[in-house]
Design goal:
Bound molecules: iron/sulfur cluster, FE2/S2 (inorganic) cluster
Shape of chain B: elongated
Structural class of chain B: alpha+beta
Shape of chain A: globular
Number of helices of chain B: 7
Low-confidence stretches of chain A: none
Oligomer: heterodimer
Radius of gyration of chain A: 25 Å
Mean pLDDT of chain B: 93
Largest interface: A-B, 17 and 14 residues
Largest sheet of chain B: 4 strands, mixed
CATH superfamily of the largest domain in chain B: Glutaredoxin
Number of strands of chain A: 17
Distance between the termini of chain B: 33 Å
Low-confidence stretches of chain B: none
Number of domains of chain B: 2
Order of helices and strands of chain B: HHHHEHHEEEH
Distance between the termini of chain A: 50 Å
Radius of gyration of chain B: 19 Å
Strand content of chain B: 5-15%
Helix content of chain A: 25-40%
Strand order of the largest sheet of chain A: 2-1-5-3-4
Number of domains of chain A: 3
CATH topology of the largest domain in chain A: Rossmann fold
Largest sheet of chain A: 5 strands, mixed
Amino acid sequence: MNIKINNNEFWANPGDTILQVAKREGIKIPTLCYLSDLSPTGACRICVVEIENGQLVPACAYPVYDGMVVQTNSKKVRRSRKSIIELLIANHPQDCLVCVRNGCCDLQDLAAEYGVRSYRYVGEKRSGKLDLASPAVERDPEKCILCGRCVRMCHEVQNVGAIDFVDRGFYSQVAPAMNRSLNTTACVYCGQCIVACPVGALREKSYLKQAWEAINDPDIHVIAQVAPAVRVAIGEEFGMAPGSITTGKIPAALRRIGINEVFDTNFAADLTIMEEANELIERIQGGGKLPLFTSCSPGWIKYVEHFYPELLEYISTCKSPQGMQGAVIKSYYAQKTGIDPKKIYVLSIMPCTAKKFEAGRPELSVSHTEPDVDVVLSTREFARMMRIAGIDFTRMPDEGFDDPLGESTGAGVIFGASGGVMEAALRTAHYMITGKDMDRIDFTPVRGLQGVKESSIKIGNATLNVAAVSGLHNIDHFLEDVRNGKSTYHFIEVMACPGGCINGGGQPLPSTPEKIQKRMEAIYEIDRSLPKRCSHYNESIKTLYDEFLGKPGGHKSHEILHTHFTKRESI
Amino acid sequence: MRSEEVYKKYPRNEASNMIAMLQDVQEVHGYLPEDDIIRVAKHLNVPTSRVYGVATFYNQFRLTPLGKHVIRVCRGTACHVKGSLDILNTLEAELGIKAGETTKDLQFTIETVACIGACSIAPVIVIDDKYYGGLTSKSVYKLITEYRKKEDQADKQ
Ligand code: SF4
Ligand code: SF4
Ligand code: SF4
Ligand code: FES
Ligand code: FES
């Protein structure tokens, strides 16, 4: 069918909304409550357009019909949008100068684009209490514009439902049950609500202050570790094209900030693979609990602890790469260098908000008292840190990570994308079982941004059924099957965030499907370009086992690299 | 109905029964206790935030228990013109609660209502089932002090 937008004819599919056609044709219509992939609610009405009879309709929710005539920029439309913005601002703290989203805020952008130059409406503002109690996600309800994106994300995509609209009318707000703090709920700290939020009403808990204090203390040996997904995203914060690979610039910047040593979480990802591939084989050969679920996504782990505690035995006992790296630093590395572990401060740079919570879990630390990872900064906080330090990231030279925990293979880097842990583990499991590498190292059926990817693979004379799942609502039917004894899988990778860590809750904003696609391509590009692509070829890992751990799954490995999870109650 | 019966009456995991179930819980307790909001959520397998959202969205649900005396302040037009806002403010200040809330000692609840059909004696409040008209800040203050005195004496006996 044909429709006319701003006097130009366009072809449209039946069932398209006006917004979909406009987007395809590069015609800009502003949106606030609209969230791609989820059904539109038509709540904010910033996307109004005028149709032939002079009516204003929300473009995000309004289906096209043949012969429709649309104006996206008539006087009526501009007026209506401007007053919506003015009304939103009237009920908003005018806080931009000190707001974490200054320069990256949809409301701020709209006010600028529509030429809002005064506070036209003045009235009572809604009040709400700051919720700073959780270790990872903070809420500032006064900044909330009630678009509902976080609510839909949390309920429909993550299946957690920690927050919802409460109260009515002027007092409506988005909050946990009984208006309590997020830390009393089943919130898994995935941070996807932060990614969804167009303003500064949701944000990560910042630990920049603690990080600077450690860096400024000459008695403390500060070690950074950098997760795989950070290197394909941080460039966006400095205007680089999405998917820019900045592996070498990161250690260069960290050294200039004053970090003493820079290790690579990819090393620990390789280490995770050695342990997890071994665990998979042990369970298959020894009749252990199957399917084996991966354990590297702390949002996913917390989800199981709240909603499926009876299935915790199915989860791999491996700590996450962040946890393993911290543990190895505070044990092996401290021993090797003779530095007192109490004087070592581990600073993680992660694409993730849930890692902030994970770092504080006592069962993850070697000493069970002091944490192995002292502070976790998101990719965004790392960018802020560089700005404060006056570092022009785009001009950093390429430098390497430090030994002995800086070497990594292609298997480590693909942890950053959904399906990567699975693929990396299969590469090594194949080698452990058959003594040879897979004919083709690339195992593509588990790649891509779909929420569920399933496949089978023959290793030796066994056939393994595997799945890679991301976005927590996708995992429930797998778990139900396990609960009912009907699962036919051997190995399931789960990442809480849709698409994996490349789309983590701590990544640069705004995040769009196109950017996530680019970040993913960059991850596999790095893997392809590396000389070694299997964890079992990582020389530093071999040394670590020789000098300290013994063998994968051995006694020492269990002590340092494995953990257990516990049932969690919440309201 | 007793509390347990409510949970027996409704099948588990049937979210469509949420409102009916909350009504029954309120029937039992006179309000929706937090523990029951959590229990209803578990029973129906919906997030607690959603049940709480529904409970706070509809006017019919109360989240606090009713006091022994329910004071209904008319906020209809006639009463408004005759100064019902002052009456409300006085009551709120005197009892230390807002409309819709109950005092800590569970003695008083303040509610606001639209015209209660006694405009001729505006401004009007109703305490339990007794009407008081032609009020001023001063007289309402006296009235509430008397109620309190009575309760204090009852406590002492
Ligand atoms: S949320 Fe946006 S508009 Fe509001 S204070 Fe922050 S930057 Fe300004
Ligand atoms: S962090 Fe995740 S689980 Fe928690 S409220 Fe946000 S979306 Fe929901
Ligand atoms: S917190 Fe953010 S995403 Fe959630 S409703 Fe408010 S403005 Fe929208
Ligand atoms: S974006 Fe269309 S109504 Fe909000
Ligand atoms: S307005 Fe108060 S009784 Fe009618």
